[in-house]
Amino acid sequence: MSPGFQGRPRSAEPALPPGQYLTQDFPVLSAGPTPRVPLETWEFVISTESGAEFRWSWDELMALPQETATVDIHCVTRWSKRDTGWQGVSLDTLLEGVDTGARYAQAHSYGGYTTNLPLDDLRGGRAWIAHRYDGGPLPAEHGGPARLLVPHLYFWKSAKWVRGIRLSVQDQPGFWETAGYHDYGDPWREQRYQGD
């Protein structure tokens, strides 16, 4: 080793996924108008492959055990935001007692948006129906009153304005996936588009 060789200093910050840059903002990106869903009529429905349905009103969702999560989020448009604070109900809680042989899920939103995920990615403490952000109610422009939160995948998988999840034995691509986005969307493998 050459005298005085020190190498490149290492950052104390953990690495970002490839191709991402850090932002302090929370950019608002939507494919259409922002739905405004009154809490009195809001509901969340899990439908199984056999047609069984499990429903929660807003009050019933609020009565379930609540969890907080502090997570980094990564948008396919290349921004990442660290240490975002959320509160909501774990999908583990909602899926408890749901008898299914499904391997896939498709989230459905008020306004018509859909996105697909492997069911395993909604389990194991990795996904929530989030209704609070940064200490306050989740703003409508960020998916309020409630959105799916799946922070280990690109953020388009965390469907805004979520109203339900349909379970199935076969994968069914959602809105962005049928337009060429990756079916899975792992930011650490840079799975932005089909073929990545």
Automatic annotation (TrEMBL):
Q: Cite the Gene3D superfamilies for this sequence.
A: Oxidoreductase, molybdopterin-binding domain
Q: Where does the record place the Oxidoreductase molybdopterin-binding domain?
A: 32-176
Which Pfam families does the UniProt entry name for this protein? Oxidored_molyb
Residues annotated as region Disordered? Answer: 1-27
Which protein, by its recorded name, is this? Answer: Sulfoxide reductase catalytic subunit YedY
InterPro entries given in the database record: OxRdtase_Mopterin-bd_dom, OxRdtase_Mopterin-bd_sf
- What's the domain of life for this entry? Bacteria
